[in-house]
Amino acid sequence: MTVSTPGIHHVTCIAGDPQRNIDFWVETLGLRLVKRSVNQDDPGTYHFFFADAEGTPGTSMTFFPWEDVRQGKVGSGQVSRTAFRVPEGSLDYWEERFDEHGVDYDDRVERFGETVLPFTDPDGLPVELVEVEIPDDEPTVPWTEFVPEDAAIRGFHSVTLWLADPDPTEELLREMGLEEVGTEEAQGDAPGDERTRFAAGGPVGRYVDVLPTIVGGRQGHGTVHHVAFQTPTDEEQSAMRDVVQSAGLRPTQQINRHWFRSVYVREFGGVLFELATSGPGYTSDEPLGELGERLVLPGKFEADRERIESQLPDITVPRAEPVDADD
After folding, report:
1. Number of domains observed in the structure of the chain
2. Would the keyword Oxidoreductase be found if you checked this record's keyword annotation (predicted)?
């Protein structure tokens, strides 16, 4: 079968304080907490999933809040920035909101004909908002508890990879079905002199940008742990696994992550890639209207709920103040 990915499925990052993480991504950025769970490889740590109103593939930013981990530093072999789509004309709103909430942001830049607003989250994670035209058949569903629909984040736009030797990774992206669509001079904090963009076939999370750099980094607070690409069905995932294995990499076997099934592989430059199925999805164990309301413990962890809950710090999900009908 012909193999290609529609684009990014999710991005998983490392945070510090869990309450600060939730406050920022829910209240300040206006994403919905669609799953409150634990790291399945380290169940003494939360795993938070922030997404659109329905947890649509291509919209979820997830975090491991490891409080005892050191501050990270973005460098070669990492996702250096994660970018989200926002509606055209909304960046004025976002700058005003960032001013109100004390968010550090930089001047806007133009990149491949689009306007980009760079900023950082409270852990120093580099993030961007990119203005795009939202099509009539847009698959994402905005969450509007804190941010109005005409400014709400609408899933991923892109990730940027910093790599010491981009060539093998660029060839891998082509074999994964992404197409090189352009190059331009790097701007902002990018240490390389040329940015190369690759595009997948889907409407959300389409782009992967590659920048050359030998700047050293370390994993920790404020860095990306891995980026996951959509392989919607088991058959497509198996075929993509064969592709990356044929390229000379060593992917894992399929691992059941409860809301999707995953294969992991560390690409040539050191970035951890995941291949993730679309299903069964975040509503497989919670009604849509109750996503993120309780701690969900996948499979074998449920039997150990009492001990796991005793190890986790208490957190509160921000709620918008009710609007007075007379206002």
Report:
1. 1
2. yes
Count Cβ atoms within 10 A of the Cβ of residue 168 and give its class: 0-12 exposed, 13-18 middle, 19 or more buried: middle
How far is Cα 145 from Cα 116, in angstroms, rounded to an integer? Answer: 24
Q: Which residue has the tokens 């750099």?
A: 213
Owning domain of residue 92 = 8-311
Give the CA distances from residue 74 to residues 77, 189, 220, 240, in Å, rounded to whole numbers and listed in that order. Answer: 9, 11, 9, 28
Q: Counting Cβ atoms within 10 Å, is residue 311 exposed (0-12), middle (13-18) or buried (19+)?
A: exposed
Q: Show Cβ contacts of residue 261 under 8 Å, excluding neighbours closer than 6 positions.
A: 234, 237, 254, 255, 276, 277
Torsion angle of the four alpha carbons 193, 197, 198, 204, in this order, in degrees rounded to the nearest 10: 140
Beta-carbon contacts of 306 under 8 Å, excluding residues fewer than 6 positions away, are: none
Coil, helix or strand at residue 243: helix
**Residue 221 sits in a domain of what CATH number?**
3.10.180.10
- Does the residue 317 lie in any domain? no
pTM, two decimals, is: 0.96
Q: 107-117: b or e for each residue (b if 16 or more CB lie within 10 Å)?
A: eeeebeebbbb
How do residues 177-227 score in pLDDT, each as one tens digit?
Answer: 999 999 998 876 556 679 999 999 999 999 999 999 999 999 999 999 999
Query: And the tokens for 104?
Result: 């550090």
30 in any annotated domain: yes
| 3 domain-assigned | no
Residue 281, in any domain of the structure = yes
Query: Helices 166-175 and 234-246: crossing angle, nearest 10°?
Result: 140
